Structure formats: C-alpha cells, structure tokens
Amino acid sequence: MKPTALPTSIDQTAELLARADYVAERSLATAVFLSLKMGRPLFLEGEAGVGKTEIAKVLASTLGRKLVRLQCYEGLDVASAVYEWNYARQMIEIRMAEAEGASSRESLAQDIFSEKFLIRRPILQALEGDIGLPPVLLIDELDRTDEPFEAYLLEVLSDFQVTIPELGTIKAAEPPIVILTSNRTREIHDAIKRRCFYHWVDYPDAERELEILRRRAPGVAERLSQEVVGFIQRLRKMDLFKLPGVAETIDWSKALVALDKLALDPQTVNDTLGTLLKYQDDITRIRGSEAERLLSEVKAELASA
Fold first, then answer.
1. Are residues 160 and 26 both part of a single domain?
2. For residue range 237-286, what is the model confidence (pLDDT) as tens digits?
3. Rounded to an integer, what distance in angstroms lies between the CA atom of residue 288 and that of residue 30?
4. Residue 274 within a domain
5. Is residue 93 within 8 Å of residue 146, measured between CB atoms?
6. With left for phi above 0 and alpha for psi between -120 and 50, is residue 11 left, alpha or beta?
7. Residue 225 bridge partners (DSSP)
8. Alpha-carbon torsion 107, 125, 36, 48, what sign?
9. 195 within a domain of the structure (yes/no)
10. How many CA atoms lie within 13 A of 121 on its CB side?
11. What is the pLDDT of residues 36-93, one digit of tens each?
C-alpha cells in the first residue's frame, strides 16, 4: 500500500480505521488521532481479544508504514528487544587480527564494537526507520515482561532514543508511531503510562459488534450474525474465567458458516463452544441447559424486535 498522510481530524481517523474494517468507537478514534497528531506513544489496555493489537496492524496497513512488532514475554531483555553484539563475528575478527599481528587493543576494541557488528532488534530497527516514513512500533503485551524492562523503556518512550555504551546515544531522526498493549495481567508502572496517551479498549456493544461481523465476516447470514452477537453479549454478563473477545466472535461466526448454518440451535452451540470459550470449566458451565436458556432468550428478543 502507498504511504498515506496522517489524518487531520478525529473523523478522518475513524475513516482511516474503517478503511481496514476496524470499527472504532469515537473515544478510541480520538486517542489514536491525538497520538498521531502529537507524536506520543499510545498505551492500549483491555481484555485479550478486544482488538488492541489490531490497531497497530491497521495503522501500518492504512498509512503504508512498516510494522515492527516486539512480542513481549517473561524474561525479555535488551539483547532481544533492542540490540546485541554479533559475538561470533567479533571472535572471528579478533582471531584474524591476532593472526595478522595486530598489537593495539584499543584500536581492535573500537573496530569490533562498531556498527557492522551490531544486531538490531525491533526497538532499534524502529528508531532507525526511514526519514519521512517512520514505522509503526508495536510493543505487544507489555504486562508479560518484568519491571526492569519497563524501566529501560522510559528513555525510548520519552526521548525516542536508546543508549549503547560502546557507541553512544542513538536517537530517532523522526519518531516512530508507537503502540503499547497490555492485557492487564499485572499493573504497568505509572512512569510508563505518563509517557503515553492511555485508552481502555472495552468489549463492543451489540450494535458495534454486529457491524464488526458485517465487515470481518461478510459471508455470515444477517440472522445468524444477530443470534451470535446476542448470545455472546449475554455470555459476557456471566462470571466466566475468560469472556469471549471480538476475535472469538469472528472465529465462531466463520465456524458456523463452515458448518452451513443459517441460524443457531442448541446442538450446534454445544458442539462448537470450543471455538468460543477457551477453558473447560467455562464450557462445562455453559453446555446443555444454560446454552439452551441463553439461546431461547436471544431468539425471543429477536422475534419481538
């Protein structure tokens, strides 16, 4: 896709997202617009499957930017996230220098700690992006990392730079578009949040979820879409271990189409709960009479509409 100029209004931002079939509420479009307009990182928090990661993908696609993704995990360190030295090549260089009789340790150290031996990981790649077309940097599921890594990110988020002791400070000529996400499995430190615009991405209401289905699963019959959304909206009011997100709504709808279903029935719901719920305790609780009760409520509501 060709590079596109940044949106100049909230409405344009919503249209930009909709162009990639992302149906955003106005508050989310406002947060995205302000982040783009003011060059500030955007911190998105919410339950898994509500579309946080998708925001970064959509922005990269619609703006014609490269997406640089850092998938966070426990134990993530600077060597995996920012940079590390190519130790194998450095050792070869040292052996060659010794064979050639090099005598100056200082000159050798300067040589092996030069940029040609530097391995650039996602954050450094994003900071060194093309001038005029900086990438979208996605720092995904930050809550999976440890606090020391959060502390390291403070320089990146506030000054868009990293410090490499052997080379000095590397600063972005033009800051990347930065999106951070968290599923809130733990609290992120306030110092991170202060450097970002913040938005809580919630589950969509029925109207917006139905529109999402029309865009992301256009092959689903309208009646089936209404029943699916009504059923899932009721599930989200229950005390389940993991409530279904929008991703599960889309997956379940597509699974029903693959089964040639035009409407829900109790047997089909019971047989396909594994595409909707991801924990056996939740499936056991819903399967059977509870699923039939929820489905009856949905059909009765649609019949009276």
1. yes
2. 999 999 999 999 999 999 999 999 999 999 999 999 999 999 999 999 99
3. 43
4. yes
5. no
6. alpha
7. none
8. negative
9. yes
10. 18
11. 999 999 999 999 999 999 999 999 999 999 999 999 999 999 999 999 999 998 888 8
The verdict on 154 and 176 lying in the same domain is yes
SS (H, E, C) 124-137: HHHHCCCCCCCCEE
Q: Please tell me the distance from the alpha carbon of residue 49 to that of residue 121, in angstroms, as a whole number.
A: 26
Helices 26-38 and 10-19, packing angle to 10 deg: 110
Q: Same domain for 266 and 252?
A: yes
- Residue 197 CA, chain-centre distance (Å), reads 15
d(CA 75, CA 69): 17
State whether 51 and 155 are in the same domain.
yes
Q: Which domain holds residue 87?
A: 83-115
- Residue 285: CB partners within 8 Å, gap ≥ 6? 240
Instruction: State how many domains the chain has.
Output: 3
Same domain for 149 and 280, yes or no, is: no
Q: Is 48 strand, coil or helix?
A: coil
236 contacts 228 by C-beta, under 8 angstroms: no
Terminal CA-CA length for the chain: 42
If asked whether residues 108 and 135 sit together in one domain, one would say no
Structure token pair of residue 211:
């529109």
